[in-house]
Amino acid sequence: MIIKWLTGLIKGEKRRERAKVEIEELKKALLEDPKFRDEILRELEYRTGRRDLLKAGVLGLLGLTVGSMVGGEAGAVTRSVNSSSVNSSVAREIVSDYAVKIPKPCTCIVAQDGTGDYDVSPGEDASEVIQKAIDYAHKKGGGEVRIKEGLYLINSTIKFDKKGNANMNIVMSEGTILEPNECNKILDIRAYPFSGFENYVSNIIINGGWLGQTRNKDIKTYNALGILIGFCKDISLLNVNFVGLRRGALKLLTNWDTHIINCRFFECGVGCTPQVYIGQDPERRDNTNSCKFIGCRFESHRNFATHLEIAAPSRQNFFDTCKFHGDKNNIHPLIYIHGDNWNRNFFVNCSIEWNGGPLIKCTDSTSNPNIFEACLIQSWGYYSNDKPYVDLISLKRSEIKLVGCYLLGGLNGINAVADSNLKPSQVWIDACIFKYQTDAAIRAVDSDVYINGVTIRDVGKYGIVLKPHYHSMINGLYIIHSDLDGSSTPAIWIQGKGVKYLANVDIELVEVPFQFDAKPDILKNINAKGRLSERAGVAVIKSGTKSAIVKHGLILKPRKILVTAGGDIGSIWVSDATSTQFTINCSTAPDKDIEVYWYAEI
Question: What's residue 94's pLDDT?
Fold first, then answer.
């Protein structure tokens, strides 16, 4: 017994000696090997999420403590009694590198390599494990659920449906993929109170294929929806990639202040099922308001579908620096906005391009205009003979405002019509450029346009075709080369009454500048191929004659002509006015040449 006890004591002493040696070696490595130190600290940080505890633990290992410097500077290093040999400059470096804002506590980790708080084997259903981690974090009052790299199969919907004031974040490692296996919806976020608390989902691929696949490869698709967010406020999706989900990538139903940042929607939805849907929660019956999409990309080349559908009541939703990219075989609109109850949305610095159907379609959306500012809207046009020609913007009883946009290609840049009850569309266009449309840059039938500072060039047939509903105005318009097909079609064709003001228009390199089936109420400062809307000059009635013919150079037959004689020629009047000339007459033939001053306007 004594021998056994002595043997155990000796072995224990040897283990303690080995442990001391290992600790000293670890101290030395932490102090002298920056690469090793950084790897250890970052791994610990990932595991704990607590940089304050991490800092204290490392300094404690080195025999140091963290105190407060004079003047309130945080992170000062003081030596303990037994740490005289420790390099304090290295310790200060550690404090400096890692003494930053402390994130919320990480409550749990999900992993496939046995290192998590909740583990699941690769190839097994992970939905129950992830659900348990979320429920546990919420029960603790909030925090982060971190899902480490791997492919996780989801057989049942993962839910955020707990009420309470808690910040909940789901953070994925780069390369984390959630793949629907048997479920029809991957993530359901609902019923968070409007308390100002924020909830995040970030760095995730929700997958029916995988992010690295290109348009030339087959994408594996699933009959599932990616994420539904219903009746929520302050939900953020960061760096989430949706791939190959036939029921759509994302649905927002009655949401406030949801942020979708740097997300990608690729080959999701099919047909009339859009990649992203914004609308009303049928149970809550309220609008979706102030949701923001920033730096997002929408793309499809095989699953042909609408990219973004916004159904009223949805208002003041913002899309900033987003890209919508279609395909020549996709007959569905890239952006579809419909409904007549507070449907107003803003698109800024967006690129909307290449599709076999309308790029933007608005129907029955008249309560407020949808606004597109500084956007590129383009598709195949005049010089693309082998591609489909479609309207860039198609409106039916809707309102839209374009500011600083570039519209390139398409059948018509804008095609606006009324509904069956002749309720009109209305279009505001400021400082925009139209180019390469095969038919018309702007076509509005039984609808009204308000144009200011617009350039139209190199289009197939018409610059503007306009049949006003009631009240249209054009002020500031430059048209060049609007009949490239050589059919001598007019640059501006007014098909009915209702143009109140047509002014400050320049038209060049066009065979037929105007066709007015009904004259605008006011025509002012028009210059068409050198022919003007008003002009003044001097005619001469020769000695012994009583008339002079004037080539007035106006775009139309003048409706007002004023004449003033420079000498005694009796009474004076104008006759035989046409679209090219008029005649000045006098009652007394002069005995010398007399100048007559004239002014004419259409």
Answer: 42
